[in-house]
Amino acid sequence: MAAAHLRLRSLLAIAVVVFVVVLARLRGCRAATFTITNNCGYTVWPGLLSSAGSAPLSTTGFALAPGASQAVAAPSGWSGRMWGRTLCAPADGGKFACATGDCGSGDVQCNGGGAAPPATLAEFTLDGSGGLDFFDVSLVDGYNLPMLVTPLGTASTSGSGKCAATGCVAELNGACPADLRVASASSGSSAAVACRSACEAFGSAEYCCSGAYGNPNTCRPSAYSEFFKSACPRAYSYAYDDSTSTFTCAAGATDYSITFCPAAPTSRIRDLGWIIGCARADKKKRVGGPFRGGDGTTVTSCC
């Protein structure tokens, strides 16, 4: 009887160990859940791209009607980016294409294709250095729609420090400088649907942080990047904008909400006319005025 009791205790101990190991592995398999929500008044097609060496997600693209949400689980160690595609439809020959953020797959699923600029990007590295998730919202490749990334979980309830919401909640297409503005050829309208980066628009090493400008000492903010930074101070505005634009949360304890078209505070965009005029002056390598910004604001000086 005593021997049987001892064997039973041993079996229970083994079962507990197995349960703990399986639970740990299950937790490790799901490092975070991304809940993607569309608050825009139009359909958005999220695109998802895993970095090289990262496990693929369950989907690489789908449609989100206005007000709709979809959850996507990501494994431990996952790294990649997400963005919103707009004005999508079957093009000539029946292939799926989008006016902004197109991934070139010809399908709703991006299938390993990245966003064609300009596009607002959310970038993640889960369970990285120091047991932290790293994330940011980047306008380095330009902008096509407002986006907000919000950490969810006990480690993020305070909203302080580097575990905090980030993004670009301002609607910038209407205020985009004329020489960065992108209009949709298919819509037949001159209204802007996206706003290019200065690198994409002009291709110079100074704006692209390449060549002699390929380090943080020589590549500095331009008036064009300041246009984005003033409206969206937590988003990356140029390649070396790390100090104010990278955020971290406890790995495995944090999920993330990604929202397209959150409400935009007017205080963030009221001075964009001044910035646009100065951006145009910056490109022309002169200071003065008057200049007319993308929102119709006349600027007389860039002091």
Keywords, separated by commas or semicolons:
2 domains; disordered C terminus; globular; Thaumatin; 19% helix; 5 helices; 5-stranded mixed sheet; 303 residues; alpha+beta; Thaumatin_CS; 6-stranded antiparallel sheet; Thaumatin-like protein; single chain; signal
Outline: globular
Number of domains: 2
Helix content: 10-25%
> What integer is the average pLDDT?
81
Order of helix and strand elements from N to C terminus: HEEEEEEEEEEEHHHEEHEE
Distinct helical segment count? 5
Cα-atom radius of gyration: 23 Å
The first-level CATH class name of the largest domain: Mainly Beta
CATH arch. level architecture of the largest domain = Sandwich
Quaternary arrangement of the chains shown?
single chain
InterPro entries: Osmotin/thaumatin-like_sf, Thaumatin, Thaumatin_CS
Keywords: Disulfide bond, Signal
Signal peptide: 1-31
Disulfide bonds: 40-261, 88-98, 103-110, 163-249, 168-232, 176-195, 199-208, 209-219
